Amino acid sequence: MRNLALGLVILVSAAAVPAGAAEGYRLLKTVPVPGDGGWDYVSVDEAGRRVYISHGNQVDVLDADTYELKGTIADTKGVHGIALAPDLGRGFTSNGRTDTVTIFDLKTLKSVGEVKTGKGPDSIIYDPSSKRVFAFCGRGGSATVIDASAGKEAGTIELGGQPEFAAADGDGHVFVNLEDKNMLLKLDAKKMTVLERWPLAPGETPTGLAIDPKNQRLFVGCRKKMMVVVSSESGKVVANEKIGDRVDAAAFDPETGMVFFSCGDGTVSVFHQDEPDKYSAVETIKTKTGSKTMALDRKTHKLFLPSADFKANPDNPRARPTMVPKTFAVLVYGK
Fold first, then answer.
1. Rounded Cα gap, residues 290 and 197, in angstroms
2. Which of 68, 102, 140, 328 has minimal CB crowding within 10 Å?
């Protein structure tokens, strides 16, 4: 009976472990990337097998499988984000220093146009349902909407706050965090209007945002060291969990049910979606201090995180550390 009881305990314990969580994420590769300069967003073209990394005044493009450098999108001053429209063969970068969006060809990586935006374009996404690009302008408190096919401005949406990460549900709705208002906005992509303004309490200072369209759930990373899960239909906060410090990006893997939050303290907090309103902590991936942005390759389930080494100023210890030249790289994590 004792052996039988022990066997039952083992079976119950194994059943409690979320699928795919038995083996933790580990560092698979450190990929050096030429050039220096501060970085921001990372984007993965899962079908085209490319990874787009913004830093300084350029976007470097890697092969998602071999990590070979495939090319560079140059002259994108103060680049932040990269939006991809594979159905149109185009990509779009948000250029913070020039208040512009660069349009480029996905095959050649050559610029094919430019659109003027509001002040400080940062996060940028493509909504395939409306075939529009939304460039969210932090300093302007607005979104510049671009007709992705024509490569021209379609309009402006006044947001009433400082936008951060955004996501689209593929059904005509775009969601964006307002970092300074502790709110999440729901936009009508075609009418270019704000439909809803939802408070995120107990979350504060929202940054990262990911979406599960099937279950109508939004995953918000908040600088209060908390992730909140929001219904994309009602705006209700249905769950919250503790995460790392200085969170920036979020990602959701629909195949494994895993939710990821990359944090500036050198961690990625990982949760499993047990049910749409229930989440269990799986692991905390140790990365590198400062590696707060991230992209998920949903085909291979790998994570890509930019990183660099930094050094303190000996004459001013309180000053912001500076990047050590030639240390910029992308960390690849997987199982």
1. 31
2. 68
